[in-house]
Specification:
Largest sheet: 6 strands, parallel
Structural class: alpha/beta
Shape: globular
Helix content: 40-55%
Radius of gyration: 31 Å
Protein name: O-fucosyltransferase family protein
Pfam family, one: O-FucT
Keywords: Carbohydrate metabolism, Fucose metabolism, Glycoprotein, Glycosyltransferase, Membrane, Signal-anchor, Transferase, Transmembrane, Transmembrane helix
Distance between the termini: 118 Å
GO biological process, one term: fucose metabolic process
Strand content: 5-15%
Membrane topology: Single-pass type II membrane protein
Length: about 500
């Protein structure tokens, strides 16, 4: 009995130990799991804070594997872009910029601000875009441009961040200086007058950026950096690029097409004071609008004088006659790269009669495809920009910011034909033809002769000493980026002549 009792006590003791052992194992496993998950969470958090390319690469590959649909056999798969390693430099401070104006004015300003940041060894904050101008577009930088590509593709030149560190935001009154740099300034101005400001103010905020860097007289590496930003780093968002390419595919199905940048829009007419063809009520409406914008300095403008000086955009009626004189026939597909034409279809009637195949993005795309871009003038302008750069022929009726930047892109793409209208001479010819003193054949020949050397051929920029506003614009003709060495002199000196096709 004692032996049996002893065995019974041992079994009870063992049964008591087993639950305690299991509990201990479970507790150890639970603690280990908590520690492991905590470490993993910390690791992910640190990787996000440092923007580690390693972890982002793993994440993107996982995302790609899970979500990317299978590729069609005939679809090209483009490898992800490779970027040069970041440039190692000691930053002299943070540069914030507020880009004023429309899409293309802001685009040129962004290129300038990158070049200035490189020159002064600054850290550039992703630019803020104008939301208060006539267009009142609420778009941010990342709504129009591929912000990740912008930052990564320039990392070997300039450090770019999405926002100023919080330590400066909390002391904004002491650390941030707001100012507009002087227009058309050169390297010396920024080195001698702007750079010292960062010693006292670690953040400088340029609240105006239009035309703040000179066209000429800058080091070659800065000029080439401006081009690199413009032609490579500033990519539109994938949504805009895809829709723009769809427009190009549709337009190209029927052969060559013309992109007509008809700048006959309300803001341009009000700003310039040009009212030819407008009713008295429309002329008054435009005048009231001009007075409503304090930044538009000229108020009392004589429309006819302005027109004779070549400072007015061509009217739709004038554009119809010029296109016919240049040799385009009524079967030519014409993409209307423009916003709402002032006067609506009434003012487009003569142009449509001469060229029935006028097309707009609103007629080529379904409403739901354009819906997300409506009421965002810069995003709509981006679509027109994409199509205008790709068109077989580009014709702007006013030499504004879009006309200049599209011209520069087309030069960069192999000097594609851009017919740059001499409006002062055209007004003279138009008036003579319309009053009966210049027959059609003579008028058409004269229009062609005037523009024989105005079709985007290779040429040097015109430099006007002490008159930067009057010289040729860098972004319209960045010839330093279009050719190299002695070949550049040969190319720019060539007497090329383009024929209308």
């Amino acid at each position: 009995m004692e032996g049996v009792q002893g065995r019974s006590d041992k079994l009870q003791g063992a049964s008591a130990v087993i639950p305690r052992s299991r509990l201990r194992v479970w507790f150890i496993r639970a603690c280990s799991s908590i520690v492991l998950w905590t470490c993993l969470f910390q690791l992910v958090t640190v990787s996000e804070l440092w923007r580690s390319h390693f972890f982002l690469g793993i994440t993107s590959r996982i995302h790609h594997t899970i979500q990317r649909p299978p590729q069609a056999h005939n679809e090209l798969v483009h490898p992800p872009p490779t970027f040069l390693p970041p440039r190692n430099y000691t930053s002299n401070g943070f540069l914030r910029v507020y880009c004023n104006g429309g899409l293309n004015q802001m685009r040129a300003a962004i290129c300038d601000m990158v070049a200035i940041s490189r020159l002064l060894n600054l850290t550039l904050v992703v630019p803020e875009l104008d939301k208060k101008s006539f267009w009142a577009d609420p778009s941010n930088f990342e709504d129009i441009f591929d912000v990740r590509h912008f930052i990564d593709s320039l990392q070997d030149e300039v450090r770019i961040v999405k926002r100023v560190p919080k330590r400066f935001s909390r002391k904004s009154e002491q650390t941030i200086l707001k100012m507009p740099p002087i227009s058309w300034s050169n390297e010396k101005y920024y080195m001698e007058q702007i750079l010292p400001l960062f010693g006292k103010h670690k953040v400088v905020h340029f609240n105006k950026t239009d035309a703040r860097l000179a066209n000429n007289g800058l080091p070659l590496d800065l000029q080439k950096l401006r081009c690199r930003v413009n032609f490579q780093a500033l990519k539109f968002t994938p949504e805009l690029e895809n829709l723009g390419q769809k427009l190009i595919r549709i337009l190209s199905k029927n052969g060559p097409f013309v992109a007509l940048h008809l700048r006959y829009e309300m803001d341009m007419l009000a700003f310039s004071g040009c009212t030819l063809g407008c009713t008295n009520e429309e002329a008054e409406e435009l005048k009231r609008m001009r007075y409503a914008f304090p930044s538009w300095r000229e108020k009392e403008i004589v429309s006819e004088e302005r027109r004779l000086q070549g400072l007015c955009p061509l009217t739709p009626e004038e554009a119809a006659l010029i296109l016919q004189a240049l040799g385009f026939d009524r079967e030519t597909p014409i993409y209307l790269a423009a916003g709402e034409i002032y006067g609506g279809e009434r003012r487009l009637a003569q142009l449509r009669a001469a060229f029935p195949r006028i097309i707009k993005k609103e007629t080529l795309l379904a409403n739901d495809e354009l819906q997300q871009f409506r009421n965002h003038s810069s995003q709509m302008a981006a679509l027109d920009f994409i199509v205008s750069v790709a068109s077989n022929t580009f014709v702007p009726t006013y030499y504004g910011n879009m006309a200049k930047l599209v011209e520069g892109h087309r030069r960069y793409s192999g000097f594609k034909k851009s017919i740059l209208l001499d409006r002062k001479k055209l007004v003279e010819l138009l008036d003579m033809h319309q009053n009966g003193t210049l027959p059609w054949n003579e008028f058409a020949n004269a229009v062609r002769n005037v523009h024989e050397r105005r079709m985007g051929q290779p040429t040097r920029r015109r430099v006007e000493a002490d008159k930067p506003k009057e010289e040729d614009y860098f972004y319209a003709n960045p010839y330093e980026c279009l050719c190299e060495g002695t070949k550049c002199d040969d190319l720019l000196g060539a007497l090329n002549s383009s024929q209308i096709q």
